[in-house]
Write a structure and sequence with these properties.
The protein has 308 residues and is mainly α. It has one domain. The chain is built from twelve helices and no strands. Helix 1 crosses helix 11, helix 1 (15-44) runs antiparallel to helix 12 and helix 4 (108-115) runs parallel beside helix 7 (161-184). The radius of gyration is 19 Å and the shape is globular. The termini are far apart.
Length: 308
């Protein structure tokens, strides 16, 4: 049976020191997984509708988790808070479909910049749900990451207003979702959280898929469809586990590195040109992640100092 990820121990570090490493490490690893997912979706081509991609992502993921769990697959259905698990799955689906609607009405780059403003909304809901306060330095890091996204993806005002509205809605619900995952991680494993997301997402995508399904044409397309499911499973589980070690908005900030990795994969795989936007935007995003980790380390040091 799949269990929570086993986190390596660092004997030369304190517990707080280990946690300060594991949060960013898991989130950056998740960002790489999401970047692979983005690249596979792009390679699969525009002939695959959103219902096709959603069903392959969630449907295959649901089946794979059941198969891997084997005889103990029934334990995946056990959760300490079924209502909250369903709400988290719904908010995740709303964020996903809102983003797709945004992409269809405004430039892809603009939609992605709007979506990756979700760490700001995550910070707002983190304050409302957990009472977490955010310092000026931390606010600066969020703004820096958002500016980096705007530069990297060449943000521009173009397209229909509905696209901008749905882009912001996707960011709001993504911000809610990461907070709900943070809450669920207190009593639920990362695999169970994603299992429920796959189950509900597959049920929502199924009617649209069976109405006019696009079936992979050959072995390569089947491999890409399977790759979408596998990369999504790994990225989501890593992300879910990462929220055990960092605040919801901090995790969201680290996840913005997905844009840098996606752009890099586009350069390597699709031979896209390297521009100043990649270096400038990417540097701002990664610098924000480094600075926020330094701020966290400084906060822990001060807390430990007061206890001595």
């Amino acid at each position: 049976m799949l269990k929570a990820l086993r986190i390596p121990r660092f004997p030369f570090l304190s517990r707080s020191g280990t946690e300060s490493i594991m949060g960013p490490l898991l989130m950056i690893s998740a960002a790489i997984g999401f970047a692979v997912l983005d690249s596979l979706i792009k390679l699969l081509g525009p002939s695959y509708r959103i219902w096709d991609i959603a069903f392959y992502r969630w449907g295959i993921g649901f089946g794979l988790l059941l198969i891997i769990s084997g005889r103990q697959a029934g334990s995946l259905f056990k959760t300490a808070n079924l209502k909250l698990m369903i709400i988290r799955s719904m908010t995740g689906c709303i964020a996903f479909f809102s983003l797709i609607i945004a992409i269809r009405n405004i430039p892809l780059s603009t939609a992605m910049v709007l979506f990756f403003s979700f760490p700001a909304f995550a910070a707002l809901f983190s304050y409302l749900l957990f009472g977490d306060r955010i310092s000026r330095g931390e606010i600066f890091c969020v703004i820096m990451a958002l500016c980096g996204a705007a530069v990297l993806l060449n943000f521009r005002l173009d397209g229909k207003y509905i696209g901008y509205i749905m882009g912001l809605i996707s960011a709001v619900f993504a911000g809610i979702t990461v907070n709900l995952i943070k809450m669920l991680r207190k009593k639920n494993g990362p695999v169970v959280i994603y299992f429920y997301f796959c189950m509900l997402g597959a049920l929502i995508a199924l009617p649209g898929y069976i109405a006019d399904p696009t079936i992979p044409a050959g072995a390569m397309e089947w491999l890409m469809a399977a790759g979408i499911a596998i990369s999504s499973i790994l990225a989501q589980i890593l992300m879910n586990q990462g929220f055990k070690y960092c605040k919801s908005w901090e995790g969201g900030l680290f996840l913005t590195a997905e844009m840098v990795f996606t752009t890099f994969l586009g350069i390597v795989i699709l031979q896209e040109s390297i521009s100043w936007r990649f270096w400038t935007g990417g540097s701002l995003i990664l610098a924000s992640a480094v600075i926020i980790n330094l701020i966290k380390s400084g906060q822990r040091s001060r807390i430990q100092g007061t206890r001595l």
